[in-house]
Design brief:
Helices cover about 45% and strands about 15% of the residues. The chain is α/β, with parallel strands linked by helices. It is elongated.
Amino acid sequence: MNNLLYVSIKIKLPPDLQKSFEGEIIFTDNFSSALENGAGVILSPEAKGNKTLYDIRQSMYPVLLWACDGNKKTARGSEDDSENPLNVYFEFQETPDSAFFSRIVKNYRNSLLQAEREKYFREESEKQEKLNREFLKVGIALSAERDNSKLLNYIVVKIREITRSDAGSLYLLDADRKSGDVSMIFKIAQNDSNPTDFSEFRMPVQKKSIAGYVAITGEVIKLDDAYSIPESAEYGFNKSYDENTGYRTKSMLTVPMKNHKNKIIGVIQLINKKREMGIILSGHDVVEQSVIPFDRADVEIVLALSSLAAVSLDNNQLYHEIEDLFECLVRASAKAIEQRDPATSGHSSRVAKYTVALAEAVSRDDGAFSNIDFTEDHLKGLRYACLLHDFGKYQVNFQNYLESSQFHFYLPNQ
């Protein structure tokens, strides 16, 4: 809000009243600036047919009404405007003295300021409520997704949506089991304005790159313009992508992904926060107009979501390790069963192979079995059941169940 008073040019404001607010009064019939900045508005009863006056009526913006120039016809609402009458804070029907006018204007400005504050806190509350709902959705989705590729892609999509980022990347740290050397895998790259084919690749972890610096130090790097990094910085921005594609990287936010042990397992990098998510940055001029810096709230949001994502990745890794352990147990059990009877060696594996193949064929069928669909979990459970279907042989006398034994069947005479 500002201290200006936008007064209709039809109003003959006495010199002493103008002097009371010297430098603060603007005579005009265009009140758009007043509405945008929460400034005071003084209208004449004769004011009508103006677009900004229509906006004032529609928004129920509070105004002061000056009805003391000999024309007592009120502008609170004519026949044409009966559905949207003016929201009049106070109506001057007689020319006031300077003290009374100043007091009314002061109270009016205070009411505008209070309304502006209430609007701000209401919008902030709605924004926070929406953000909390998004966090809840993301948390549920991350805890339910077991496919790491889908999980990583979902993380970048949601973080970009919440922060209105045009582009985003995700890197994972990977240590060689033999040498222990750590490298960084460029796993995900998304760009709304300049989509390109992407294949993940491995790169060394070095401080000279922004992502590498964050991975090593754990610091958050927030750049208002990636082309204006101080020479004293240990890291730098590689412009090769921009030069090859014509893209313009401006604002950037790079944060570490830390798990529950506070260990860095990856890096998330966001590029070009936009005023509106739907804007396509089709050129450098659009970038200059539409890209804004990331703020402190963005940093806190991305840190929270990246930590949540890191924990989900750790949980997925643990889940897959348990699955691998169970897989080894099932195969060892099936092998132990078959070794007791050489005649059926490989039998359980063949049953599993054929049964799963039949189930997959049924899932692909668009005829009689079109309503049957086996998911990956269904197929996995089916394969385990097939591998262990002879497990009961452990409880049968060894000599009685050998398939190679000779069994004689005696049928009664017909």
